[in-house]
């Protein structure tokens, strides 16, 4: 590869959500001059992560009236740039953590870094049916969500009949949380095969997440679900000098 496309840095951050930009801001303030890759994330999510698909964020400190998700991530990006982060809008295709310094590759660039932070995030899985998408004909963020803790207190859900789709521990936790804004709770056993109509004012998907860690397979220790394994109580991964941040 041409030397013009080889960049060297003390710290390379892979990701573009809140965790990645928080790391970038602190690293920049410490004069590390980080390089941040904000390529496409899991499920084809644009730079900025899941918040770019959120309308109003009402639980972020400093915005008592809420803030649009896209605007919030745009501000995070500008703050990173303000403190000296070099941002590259490219998707990382592979990495080499076998020796130091580490190497991070895109289709057009190679970054050689002393340390790495992986912060690609994850995307909530969603069912695909008529009305479940974004846009004028869809109800995503207008009655359909994937986070009860984030959206359950929204006025459109208050004291309304709601449904949670999911069968794991997380689904039960989300359903339990929603009892704070509901008048009651019903749990349906899906093993019976019974099909019936359920009229609800809100729907929550809790069917797992899709990770963006496939390119790390063979480079870092991953668990059976594809999550990066870190040292208990720390962010250090199986490779010394490589750290994990956020939902990875």
From TrEMBL:
Amino-acid biosynthesis recorded as keyword: no
Keywords, in A-Z order: Disulfide bond, FAD, Flavoprotein, Oxidoreductase, Redox-active center
Gene Ontology biological process terms from the UniProt entry: cellular response to toxic substance
Residue span(s) of domain FAD/NAD(P)-binding: 10-181
Keyword Nuclease attached: no
InterPro entries: FAD/NAD-bd_sf, FAD/NAD-binding_dom, Ferredoxin-NADP_redctase_2, Pyr_nucl-diS_OxRdtase_2_AS
Single Gene Ontology MF annotation: oxidoreductase activity, acting on a sulfur group of donors, NAD(P) as acceptor
Annotated Pfam families: Pyr_redox_2 (PF07992)
Similarity section: Belongs to the class-II pyridine nucleotide-disulfide oxidoreductase family.
Protein name per UniProt: Thioredoxin reductase 2
Source organism per UniProt: Quercus suber (Cork oak)
Recorded name of the encoding gene: NTR2_5
């Amino acid at each position: 590869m041409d030397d013009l496309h080889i960049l060297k840095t003390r710290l390379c951050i892979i990701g573009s959500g809140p965790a990645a930009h928080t790391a970038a801001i602190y690293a920049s303030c410490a004069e590390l001059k980080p390089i941040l890759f904000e390529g496409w994330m899991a499920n084809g999510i644009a730079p900025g992560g899941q918040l770019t698909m959120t309308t109003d964020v009402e639980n972020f400190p400093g915005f008592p009236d809420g803030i649009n998700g896209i605007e919030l991530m745009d501000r995070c990006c500008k703050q990173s740039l303000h403190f000296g982060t070099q941002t590259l809008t490219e998707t990382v295709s592979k990495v080499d953590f076998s020796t130091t310094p580490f190497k991070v590759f895109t289709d057009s660039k190679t970054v050689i870094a002393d340390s790495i932070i992986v912060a690609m995030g994850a995307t909530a899985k969603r069912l695909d049916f008529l009305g479940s998408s974004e846009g004028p004909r869809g109800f995503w963020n207008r009655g359909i969500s994937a986070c009860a803790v984030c959206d359950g207190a929204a006025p459109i859900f208050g004291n309304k009949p709601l449904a949670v789709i999911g069968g794991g521990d997380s689904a039960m936790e989300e359903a339990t949380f929603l009892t704070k804004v509901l008048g009651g709770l019903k749990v349906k056993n899906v093993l019976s095969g019974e099909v019936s109509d359920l009229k609800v004012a809100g729907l929550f998907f809790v069917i797992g997440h899709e990770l963006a860690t496939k390119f790390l397979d063979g480079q870092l220790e991953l668990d059976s679900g594809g999550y990066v394994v870190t040292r208990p109580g720390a962010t250090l991964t199986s490779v010394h000098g490589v750290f994990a941040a956020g939902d990875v």
